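Backbone geometry tokens:
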Amino acid sequence: MTPSHTDLPRFPFRAETALAPPAEWAEYRNRCPVAHVQLASGDEAALITRYDDVKSVLSDPRWTRPTPADNAARVADTESGGVFNSEMATVLPQHGEGHLTWRRTLGKWFTAKRMNALRPGMAAMAEQLIDDLVAKGAPGDLKAGLAFPLPVWVICDMLGVPDSDRDRFAHWSDVMLSMTRYTQAEFDAAQQDFGRYMGGLIAAKRAEPGEDILSALLPEDWSDAMLIATGIGLLIAGHETTANMIAKMVAMLLADRTRWERLLADPALVRTAVEESLRLDANAGVGMMRYFTDEFEVAGTVLPGGTTAMCSMAAANRDEGAFDNAAEMDLGRSPNPHLAFGAGAHACLGQPLARTELQVVLEVLLRKLPSLELAVPADELRRVEGLAVGGLRELPVRW
């Protein structure tokens, strides 16, 4: 494990407001593209911030996510280091043919054809949630009323998980994604409870299979531990990151209401607006970790074997060397090769689902609530602190 260095800058950096990027991103891209930083655990990592470097490291097949056997830097301030350094990393295949087979098997559920088939159901659910929000009266919390429940409903339906259990696994997800908010004992309890829950669900699928991902995986030659880890991973990734991104996207578009007005005038911009929101997300969390088993050179800096690299996709997405007017939100930007979903063999498996949900939510909001606006000034929005994924605590809106 990398030793602590209390004199190093603490990462992730703090920004003045929830939608603004930390000043350090531009500073490091320009002055120190490979910087040594201290994670919440106190351990040291090499922070990589330039677009070309981040894409190169993430795309290099030699490097993968750290496993407990690597003795890598820990992200969270718990003894084990949190979900990035957890048992799940040892159960799921991280390298070679095993990893490719795992991704191919799951990838069948995230094709463009399947996503298009899900669109009408997503739109109907979004309309119902918006109607419920409006019925309660303005102002309302768009995160609690729409951004959180929609992706939970979608991923629960895909996995065959009871939507009524969402509060339970939302709590487990928060604990497992925490960097500073929970103890090791609380993390262990959440991981064990989530594992027991998923194990019971898989046993029920064996007795009575359904038309869902977990049931479809049962004929595969996978251990129960791998099925459980896969189910937990999909459930966490399928609701936590997308729910937060829906809220952040709407906040960004309403922070300067000329953006919202432009979309109302030209709804055909929805797809590119979603991609630009993903690129410009300034509250994206810690990034993606990679562990260098051998010496590796990045941006002229030779990093020794045993280095833990933290690739900041959010910082890379604002690199002026990769994007013209990178700090500006261009709703029609195309092409837009952002790295919000990572790159290479470990790029986000569920990105087609996330994109579809973001597009559908935006389309329905523009149609049903054209007068939507923030109920507080943008610089008063409050970020979620202490989680590996970034988000807003709430999104107060009126219409």
Summary: Residues 224-255 form the longest helix (32 residues).
